[in-house]
Amino acid sequence: MEKKRSQFGALSLCLILASQLLTTQAVWLTLPPSGTKCVSEEIQTNVVVLADYVVVSQDHNHLPTISVKVTSPYGNDLYHKENITYGQFALTTSEAGNYLACFWLDGQHGKGETNVNLDWKIGIAAKDWESVARKEKIEGVELELRKLEGAVEAIHENLLYLKSREAEMRTLSETTNARVARFSIMSLGACIVASGLQIMHLKSYFQKKKLI
Amino acid sequence: MDITIKVYALGFLFLFTFTGDVSALSVTVNDVECVYEYVLYEGDTVSGNFVVVDHDIFWSSDHPGIDLFVSTPGGNVVQSMKGTSGEKFEFKAPRSGMYQFCFHNPYSTPETVSFYIHVGHIPNEHDLAQDEHLDPVNVKIAELREALESVTAEQKFLKARDARHRHTNESTQKRVIFYTIGEYILLAIASGLQVVYIRRLFSKSVAYNRV
């Protein structure tokens, strides 16, 4: 009876969430029996990161537990959990750089393959449209258009970011270009100076030895 | 036992709510790395791109590239790209289910690959007939959303390529500086050794009559 009730509860939860059809994302990663599986992403500052992870295993008897660690670009541990099968973390980035999320199996592992279903959202995709809809009392087509507006703003921001990176790249390339020219001429000069010094030294040496 | 069922249900419901795209994640490919994405409806357009970031090629000016194979749930390879260092792909899903995206690295050096996969669904007349909440407006909105997603995908591609360009530029800067300093040091050592050798040739202790 209890089993039927829990199954019914799970199924209804299934249906409720399936009816939303959010544009969420999921990728399945296969965890190796030993060692870690890491995914990373380069994220700028002040970006919301939201991630859900669930362990999916072909072994029906027991679900293997995993450990998760999320590190910032400077090496700080932002999230660390052991011995779990599902979880969620949310953070707002304070540094720009490569954020790393690592998963590994805890000691015991099941018979089949162990996969982790990772739902990783950043920026506009992590925005909670449900609360926006509730707060501003909009729904349906208006909500969809609001989402599209958010997407367009995100595109604009990305474009500005790409523009600034291109400017940085260009100054770096121009510096390297100037340095190559300068160093080549300097090495030619160094060659001439070295041979000049050699000749002077040898001449004075031979004159001292009374050979010339 | 209860918790197991709940967790399984959680897993399955995550499975069925996804019609989505993945953020541009990077994964390190040593030999083969496979990523799975669930396609909810048959006929959905699966689009995406991948870029090999953070590679260190020493002599050649070309990246040898990695391979990508996309397989349907049935096992057929629906897209295959060999030896590229970054490309976009798009295909119409012949059936719904779990699609496999595998990166093969034929070389021994591990490569970091940044990939982006998007599954786009536009409701068609069949869906309109079934769901009373859907208008023809929703179809247009879905088309608009897909168009914006393609722009976003392009931007993620550009961002990943820009990251690779940045690595190359930083490596070039480092090489310019270190190779020049190394060159000067070697020049000094070589000319010093030359002088020492010539002095030895003319020194009395080593039969100078030979010269």
Helix share bin of chain B: 40-55%
Number of helices of chain A: 3
Strand order of the largest sheet of chain A: 1-8-3-6
3D shape of chain B: elongated
Largest interface, with counts of residues having CB < 8 Å to the other chain, equals: A-B, 81 and 70 residues
Return residue spans of chain A where pLDDT drops below 50 for at least 5 consecutive residues. 8-23
Query: What is the CA-based Rg of chain B, rounded?
Result: 29 Å
What is the mean predicted local confidence, pLDDT of chain A? 83
Span between termini of chain A: 114 Å
Estimate the strand proportion of chain B.
Answer: 25-35%
Helical residue percent band of chain A: 40-55%
Bin the strand percentage of chain A.
25-35%
Largest sheet of chain A: 4 strands, antiparallel
Strand count of chain A: 8
How many helical elements of chain B? 3
Explain what the structure shows.
The complex is a heterodimer of chains A (212) and B (211). With 212 residues, chain A is an alpha+beta fold. Chain A has 3 helices and 8 strands, in the order αββββββββαα. Chain A has helices at 2-18, 129-136, 141-208; strands at residues 27-31, 37-43, 48-57, 66-71, 77-84, 86-92, 97-105, 114-122. In chain A, the strands form 2 sheets. In chain A, strands 1-8-3-6 form a 4-stranded antiparallel sheet, with no helix packed on it. In chain A, strands 2-7-4-5 form a 4-stranded antiparallel sheet, with no helix packed on it. The N and C termini of chain A lie far apart (114 Å). Mean pLDDT of chain A is 83; it is low at 8-23. With 211 residues, chain B is an alpha+beta fold. Helices cover 42% and strands 29% of the residues of chain B. Chain B has 3 helices and 8 strands, in the order αββββββββαα. The termini of chain B are far apart. The chains are: A alpha+beta (212), B alpha+beta (211). β1 (27-31) of chain A pairs antiparallel with β2 (32-39) of chain B, so a sheet runs across the interface.
